[in-house]
Specification:
2 copies of one chain form a homodimer. Chain A is α+β, with helices and mostly antiparallel strands and 600 residues long. Chain A has a domain at 457-593. Chain A has 19 helices and 11 strands. Chain A has helices spanning 8-18, 21-26, 36-54, 58-64, 79-88, 107-120, 122-141, 144-156, 284-320, 344-376, 380-415, 427-435, 444-455, 462-478, 485-511, 513-547, 557-574, 577-586, 590-593; strands spanning 67-69, 72-74, 159-164, 180-183, 188-199, 208-215, 228-233, 235-237, 243-246, 249-254, 265-277. In chain A, strand 8 and strand 9 form a beta hairpin. In chain A, helix 7 runs antiparallel to helix 9. The longest helix of chain A has 37 residues, at 284-320. The radius of gyration of chain A is 24 Å and the shape is globular.
Chain lengths: 600, 600
Amino acid sequence: MVSYSAPLDDIRFVLYDLLDYDGRIAGLPGFEEASRDLVDTVIEEGAKFCENELLPLNRSGDEEGCIFENGVVRTPKGFKELYEAFCEGGWNGLALSPDHGGQGLPKTLQFVLTELICSTNLSFGMYPGLTHGACNALELHGSDEQKATYLPNMIHGRWTGTMCLTEPHCGTDLGLIRTRAEPNGDGSYKITGTKIFISAGEHDMSENIIHLVLAKLPDAPEGSKGISLFVVPKFMVKEDGSVGPRNGVACGSIEHKMGIKASSTCVMNFDEAEGYLVGEAHSGMAKMFTMMNVARLDVGMQGLGLAETAYQSAAAYAKERLQGRSLAGPQHPDKPADPIIVHPDVRKNLLTMKAYNEGSRALAFWVAMAVDVAEKHPDAAKRQEADDLVALMTPIIKSFFTDQGFETTNLGMQVFGGHGYIREWGMEQLVRDARIAQIYEGANGIQALDLVGRKLGQNMGRLLRRFFHPVQAFIEENQNDPQLAEFVAPLAKALSRLQQSTLWIAQQGLKDPEEAGAAATDYLNLFALTALAYMWARMVKVSLAQTNGSESNGQTPEFHEAKLATARFFFQRLLPKSSGLFAAIMTGKAPLMDMKEAAF
Amino acid sequence: MVSYSAPLDDIRFVLYDLLDYDGRIAGLPGFEEASRDLVDTVIEEGAKFCENELLPLNRSGDEEGCIFENGVVRTPKGFKELYEAFCEGGWNGLALSPDHGGQGLPKTLQFVLTELICSTNLSFGMYPGLTHGACNALELHGSDEQKATYLPNMIHGRWTGTMCLTEPHCGTDLGLIRTRAEPNGDGSYKITGTKIFISAGEHDMSENIIHLVLAKLPDAPEGSKGISLFVVPKFMVKEDGSVGPRNGVACGSIEHKMGIKASSTCVMNFDEAEGYLVGEAHSGMAKMFTMMNVARLDVGMQGLGLAETAYQSAAAYAKERLQGRSLAGPQHPDKPADPIIVHPDVRKNLLTMKAYNEGSRALAFWVAMAVDVAEKHPDAAKRQEADDLVALMTPIIKSFFTDQGFETTNLGMQVFGGHGYIREWGMEQLVRDARIAQIYEGANGIQALDLVGRKLGQNMGRLLRRFFHPVQAFIEENQNDPQLAEFVAPLAKALSRLQQSTLWIAQQGLKDPEEAGAAATDYLNLFALTALAYMWARMVKVSLAQTNGSESNGQTPEFHEAKLATARFFFQRLLPKSSGLFAAIMTGKAPLMDMKEAAF
């Protein structure tokens, strides 16, 4: 069975010891209340809620799935009550605007909560997750009236939100959408068209569902420049803010999917539904990216969350399952066999999971803090700097974390042997649930194109410097520390490979964008490995300092020993992959592009 | 939707042009009839049967699954009739003994058929697959009476077979089994115990089910040396060979699995069931490996079969799906968008699949021919040589092909984007079906241990020479050919890495078996990549010769151009992974073993 308890020790280590939450976030305007004490309490309560309420419904939710009947979607047993408790506990509005009833806590805290939710019940997490995306878009781009009409109920969770982008013939290429919006003359629009793959598009957990819909106005320019964003409620909202009659939007069917079965994935038919323009006409694409960028980081956290549960479950099983003997001779001669954790290959699987998870968590929270700094720092230059880092790291976190989430859940399943393939053990569900994260919110290949095609060149490479400079500074500062040499040297080598390939892509890509495209995925992965190496080197430095007697935040000496051992595994066993990636990048596009289309 | 047509061109290329089927197999004693004409006919008919009969029931089989009610297992709709047609067509006994009604064709042909079956309906293929394993064990180890009693019906397929090994508390470590066999005094035994994960343990497609069961006699030595093999029919067989009363074996339940849902996976309860010893007492482990080794190669073919379907489906989709524009500017300005095959990253996914699949097919059939040579060659030294190669390559084929099967089906699914995650499209089923192959018949970590722990050192490294020598000879023979230089040089480099790490493992492993264990998985993958590089270099040589005018077996110039382009992709984009594997191997066991158990 799946074993999970929230990794509070590691979360605290990353927030407080590694990333200086107190100095960087607690002091920002608006976060005066968000002291370490409050944060600790929130995380502990969140952990309890996820462990005790979300996790028990994860397996049954997968088995039951959502049921579609007569236009209505029934979520699995217990989900409605669970969602109510979630909203009543204030979890929905944790980091949303206090102007409309949210708690206004740092986004960093939301990242932590998102990890815990995804570890325990990803399908459930989809419902509030989509609402958050919609709230962000309305907060940033909605009129005051729209904010007042929708946000309080959405932030509470009484109403949920969706993002209606994809159509049957287009996903990545939204310039092709056919959904149209015709002016009613009174400022409202008639929205008509079909949207597919709409998560939380229809369900039985909320009073109302607020759809944010991409559509084209009659005078729209061709392609993605002609897209506008509309808000379309399932039920009309009356003058007094209460729920009125049904609008012209209905669920046509739900998808039968590989995983996240308790999350409803809907075909939504808009038939002259009344909708309201959000912001300017034809500016929908940019607004869509507001939702999308937050959602991409969220999806990255899905990978990490599932991977953490897979790791904990596999580690527990490997300590319990007796099978065979250690290659070094029986370790438990009193027992019929040794636990399988004695085997190097099992340890390799577990350490791979642990090293990716803890490295990713550090990287995620580093970026999460940048999200807060970008929003709240009084100094505009600091805000810009932080925003640059978030923009740069978003495709990396989305793509690498979800690829690792899939790899790691599969490693966890492998540790369980045949039992891993059996549904009741819960491990294969993690794999199926993890798989979608590599696809939605921009398939991972698209993330890689975003990185090389947009982020690399933006403002003459300014975004890149937000990563390269601190890594370079860290290397220079620590390269003569003998305790750190085994980590700093391979970090420097990885960084040098990353810089060489960056230069190569920049030069080649200018002449021929296909060269950049051909390098994109390998480059993203090389970037991610380097970023994890940076995080691991920084963690080691903190752990060594604490082992050597400096201030500790409650971690045991064993915690720091494990950090050191895991770091060594990362640098010796995982980081070497960067050499193959580097070699593949430098071959250029010919091996991909020379093959004739007909030969495939 | 899934697209598949049997890759007959490539199969013929590998059999005839690359591997000289006529010279090496058609001439062997017993295969006088198995001319190229006959082989072509059999493969073409097999392809038709798989495409037209097996494939149409693959999706419905997955949706319906097997149903267990009152001790009876119902296979999905159409499976019973399909199985009847399969047996009537003579497909079951294709390469089984003609002494008992089989067609006695080369095992090479069975490998080809297995690929086609796994491409079109893996779940269905499990039923005859298990029967084959049981037939092999009875042919080699059964008494004449046992052979006469069981084999004719099993070879026809009227009766099916199973392999009953695993118990709830033991899978890998069969020394722990608790199922016991008590002598009845008349030469028969009472078998009592519970077996789990028994594929085809119970179903409605055959008159009788013949279980091959591992159990312990009362006087059995401890551990794996005390295991005996028994044959236990579901229905007793009467003197006249007809089916008699029910034996004391029954299905207790079936598993709910991630995939291969139309294959019944049973808990089998033996309650004083009558059984008969196969061969000597306490010699069951070795006999089990007779079944197991054949089964391991079969399972490797499952990976390849599913991967081929994934590749063909993804390639077809990538040519059809219009989305976005080429980075080099619109390729089809008349259409709303370009097909996604214009994108480098989509091509990278497709070429990865194609390069692994075609390389694996060549490697598989090379080893398949060695299976035939090991059985039929008049020269004992040649037989031994071939048997060595099979023994060496079995864990590599099982582990690498199934890992690639999983990776490749996932790449195929990724090409489909969101549609890949939806059940009705069929791509996610390939992924779920492929996942089990990494686990059963010895999880892939066990294969790696088999390679480094048993095969490497066997007879002073004699097995290794069966691979190293021909590769070395190929390199020496072709290193001065300017057309081959771009392939031979990286092959030589990969071989050198493989040889260095072999030496390192041999030396370190002697002192400390955990060192070998810590290197095992990375070493197996390095070995597999080198073997694929050897196959690709050989294929290129043949294709170049044919392009330059030598005899061709019907392939078009485009076929050979595609071989060359795919080979270049393999050498430039995939083989570089070997550097990271090599570096990881050479770090030794410390990064895996230094971590304390409690720290996981």
